[in-house]
Amino acid sequence: MSNSDLWIRDIITTYGLSLVIFILIAVVISRKWSYLQNRIYKAYLTGFELECAKVMAPYKRHLFQSLEHIVSNDNVLRSMGSIRLLEIGVKMGENIQFYPDYTHLIGVDRNLKLADYLIKGNRSCQFSHVIIERLIIGDGSSLKEIPTGYVDVVVTTRSLCSVTSLKSTLQEIHRVLTPGGQYLFVEHIAENEGTFVRWLQGMLSRTKIWPSLFGGCHLNVNPIVDIKNAGFNHVVWDTFTVESYASRSFHWILSKQHVLGVAVR
């Protein structure tokens, strides 16, 4: 037996059991990967995103104050004192509390069970002040069900990071808004260039590690340039940092920088 054969035998003898265990674990994970993704993302939504929504409530309350003064372009809704609002990325419905009574809501989300959650779920009573006009399964990059110039307001909060095409989503937002309609946004953005966190955001996003576990979220996105180039007549925005000693500090470190603003069609 040659030296190379002896070396291979020694490797198998020493590490054979560990190798077999590793292969078995890899097979189990690959077969259960979709299930694990869903469980991790659900825990993320019901944990961190809810926690995040509470911390960011003052910023949202300030942003959504303008909803009380919007006059609908729809004659019927205007006569009723209502508006039509489309939200992309409804998640757990944490923004609905800020919407005026009798708002006609069109919700867009990847959650296949969104209707059950908003209408029949344990928290459905918290959404009863709005009228759910339509729920669309998707990410906002295609809103072909919505006519051009149909909605008065579009809202996204921490959602543009997960769309399949940022450019297409913004084009659709611009298209479905009525002339003079408003796009209200609060989105997390990448850290400054040259920082370790920025490098980490890029690495986790480019390798698809983070998107695969957290609903397609890309940590290295900064949509403000795309928003400014989407054809809106007027865009105002500002950046802010959310500091929190929340239980999931790693998530906060990776998505604490935000941009908040209004774009008018």
Brief summary:
With 265 residues, the chain is of the alpha/beta class. The protein contains 10 helices and 7 strands.
Describe the structure.
- It is built from ten helices and seven strands.
- The mean pLDDT is 86.
- It has helices at 3-31, 33-55, 57-63, 75-80, 114-120, 166-176, 196-206, 209-213, 224-228, 249-254, and strands spanning 84-88, 104-109, 131-137, 151-157, 177-188, 234-241, 257-264.
- The protein has 265 residues and is an alpha/beta fold.
- 30% of the residues are buried.
- Strand 4 (151-157), helix 6 and strand 5 (177-188) form a beta-alpha-beta unit.
Structure characteristics:
265 residues, alpha/beta, seven-stranded mixed sheet, 7 strands, transmembrane, SAM-dependent_MTases_sf
Low-pLDDT runs of 5+ residues are none
Sum up the overall morphology in one term: globular
Percent strand: 15-25%
Question: Helix and strand string, N-terminal first?
Answer: HHHHEEHEEHEHHHEHE
As a whole number of angstroms, the C-alpha radius of gyration is: 23 Å
Given helix and strand content, the structural type is alpha/beta
Topology record:
Blueprint: H1 3-31, H2 33-55, H3 57-63, H4 75-80, E1 84-88, E2 104-109, H5 114-120, E3 131-137, E4 151-157, H6 166-176, E5 177-188, H7 196-206, H8 209-213, H9 224-228, E6 234-241, H10 249-254, E7 257-264
Parallel strand pairs: 1-2, 1-4, 2-3, 4-5
Antiparallel strand pairs: 5-7, 6-7
